[in-house]
Design goal:
Largest sheet: 9 strands, mixed
Strand content: 15-25%
CATH superfamily: Acetylglutamate kinase-like
Shape: globular
Number of helices: 8
Number of strands: 11
Strand order of the largest sheet: 4-3-5-2-1-6-10-11-9
CATH architecture: 3-Layer(aba) Sandwich
Distance between the termini: 19 Å
Structural class: alpha/beta
CATH class: Alpha Beta
CATH topology: Carbamate kinase
Order of helices and strands: EHEHHEEHEHEEEEHHEHE
Number of domains: 1
């Protein structure tokens, strides 16, 4: 713990933060927006100062989206690998922003590229977390046909995280798009099965099913609200919890 770290009561010890690649482009239509990346790094820093171990998965949609490439005639496997490479670029950008704040960060790639990232070795990754380093998992699962949502759920399960925090543009899960419908209703809590049956768009079906199988809560919140990530960990803020209806916040972290 650094001299500036101040522990705040929280029921979480280790969490996964999942954000889309689009979250890094700010108001731009493409690419990376350094001030936005720095703001997200501030959010991660504030949570780490609480004593919470943080790992991250970032999508690649701000650079390349495999499904869109496939829809335009590109071979799906090739398009997905290109999307994985886009997530590595985003991970490196976030690593740079975090290290500029003095936060020790490791990018761990599911596709070997030893010059820029570590290969994924579960025990080594766990050790990084125990040493209070922020981990950014890149290149998805390393396999085509799987999204970064599924990668985040898989890595969160392997790291024994207590929850997945899904940062979005809205402050939770709604019954319909709140940006299009004024009468949209926000849920405080939904079950995994409800999210799947109602197609609420929390994550893709594979990710939700994997979270359900491992009883891993998904907390959907607005990444645009300053201090929102830390606030939720402190028991405040507005968000939606996706659970089995029985899971309580926080569970013991096993080494």
């Amino acid at each position: 713990m650094s001299d500036t770290e101040v522990k705040t009561p929280t029921s979480y010890d280790r969490v996964m933060l999942k954000i889309s690649g689009e979250a890094l482009m700010g108001d731009q239509g493409f690419g990376l927006h350094p001030p936005t990346i720095a703001r997200i790094a501030d959010e991660v820093e504030s949570v780490q100062q609480m004593g919470v171990e943080v790992c991250m998965v970032i999508g690649g949609g701000n650079i390349f989206r495999g499904l869109q490439g496939s829809a335009q005639g590109m071979e799906r496997t090739t398009a997905d690998y290109m999307g994985m490479l886009a997530t590595v670029m985003n991970a490196l950008a976030m690593q740079s922003a975090l290290e500029a704040k003095g936060i020790h960060t490791r990018v761990i790639s599911a596709i070997r590229m030893d010059e820029v990232a570590e290969p994924y070795i579960r025990r080594r990754a766990v050790r990084h977390l125990e040493k209070k380093r922020v981990i950014i998992f890149a290149a998805g699962t390393g396999n085509p046909y799987f999204t970064t949502d599924t990668a985040a759920t898989l890595r969160a399960s392997e790291m024994n995280c207590q929850a997945i925090f899904k940062g979005t543009k809205v402050d939770g899960v709604y019954d319909k798009d709140p940006n299009k419908f004024a009468d949209a209703v926000r849920y405080d809590e939904v079950t995994y099965d409800e999210a799947l049956q109602k197609n609420l768009g929390v994550m893709d079906a594979s990710a939700i099913a994997l979270a359900r199988d491992n009883k891993l809560p998904i907390i959907v919140f607005s990444l645009d609200e300053p201090g929102g990530f830390r606030g939720i960990l402190s028991g405040e803020g507005t968000y939606t919890r996706v659970t089995d209806g029985k899971t309580r916040p926080g569970r013991e972290v096993k080494s």
